[in-house]
Amino acid sequence: MPGSSKHNLTASVLLTAQLALCLPHAYASEPLRCNNASESPHKLAVSLKTERGRPLWPGSRFTEAERARAIRRGLRFIYRTALDRDNFDNYGSDYLWCFYTVGAGVSDRGLRRLAHQMGVERARLWRRTHRALTAQASADEVVDFAFGSDAADSLGLRDDALKGQIRRAASRFDARDLLLFDPTNEPPPADVPEACEFDKTTNARGAKVCRRCGRPLRMRTRYDVWYDALITTYVGDRYGVRLGATYGDVLKWLPALRPYRGSQGGANAEFYDTVYSITHVVYTLNEYGQYRLPARLLPREFEFLKANLREAVAEGDADMLGEFMDSLRALGLTDADALIRAGTEYLLAHQNADGSWGDARERDIYLRYHPTWGGVAALSNYAWRGTGPSPAKLRLLLALNQASARAEY
């Protein structure tokens, strides 16, 4: 097209300039803050006790000690549920990722150690029960094995032989098998049906009635399909096994999901999946709680999260609230911000007697432990390793932002 060469050259110069500004800070290390070596152990102990007994901030109903206790109660609830054989059979890979990310990210050394111990114990069991991947493994089984093995590797229990089996098995499937669409050449689709709510039958993409019972099917939102693929390819890239496409292939469709709409008083059926799409952009860019992210890299996402956090409080949705708070902390908000304070007060006031968050009457264990994981993450402070994302992801994100700016202009 006339003028395209000049346009691309201009874009390249702009991208190079932005990288020069941003890359020196990407993954930049931060000095550890050490206690004054001249202080006596007794003085340090008294100071710590006093600090933990203070309100979280002036006017708060809760103390630092109460927050720390709530976090530990939540983590122990998750571990108790992970000890159940059926729960672990169904969600073992997710449990391992929970214990790994808490143990790798939070600043409380005791909590890090506890989460790591829980994770290693469960990872040993996972390794014993996942020694080999059968040749007849389905696409879903391949993905679950990759998730679990990556988490077990991260906890220090490697199995390179199994990794080879997973890699060979994954190569038998294409992107549509593993991701439900092919992000290399199509945007997130809106024609992927949910499993039939009556008989749990899975149906082909585009189907409108269940092939078994003939009842109408509900469609998954394009946000839901997209962030599922984002997580899958993130794990695949991280683990070193291609799961249908690359993380960049999926992330490039982020501008197609904008602009974001709020709840609109409950009228927006895509709101829930919009929230989780945005929070998982944050998670996959900051390695699930290990790096801060400059909010200027995700300005639309940052504004959406700030504008809609109180919706999660109003709905009493601890799971969603946890993801809001966790992501906003990564983007720079702290306990000094009113939104974080509102979310913290809500979570501390609504923890269940068993240490969980969410509906204590819920029978689906995923809907018990996952909101609790969100509560633990939202209330925790993080030992940030520096500022992310990685240089490769930063280049991709800057290019996407430039493309969006050109399209809007």
Structure description:
The structure is a single chain. The chain is mostly helical and 409 residues long. Among the domains are: 81-166, no CATH class; 258-409, no CATH class. Helix content is 58%, strand content 0%. It has helices at 4-22, 41-53, 64-82, 85-105, 109-129, 139-154, 160-170, 175-179, 222-239, 247-251, 271-285, 299-315, 318-330, 338-349, 366-379, 391-408. α1 packs across α16 (391-408), α4 runs antiparallel to α5 and α4 (85-105) packs across α6 (139-154). It is globular and about 55 Å long.
Kindly summarize this structure in a few lines:
By secondary structure, this protein is mainly alpha-helical.
Supply the key terms.
globular, mainly alpha, 58% helix, disordered N terminus
- The N- and C-terminal alpha carbons lie at a distance of 18 Å
Rounded mean pLDDT is 90
Could you name the ranges where pLDDT drops below 50 across 5 or more consecutive residues?
2-26, 28-39, 44-49
How much helix, percentage-wise, in residues?
Answer: 55-70%
Give the percentage of residues in beta strands.
under 5%
Structural class: mainly alpha
Number of strands: 0
Shape: globular
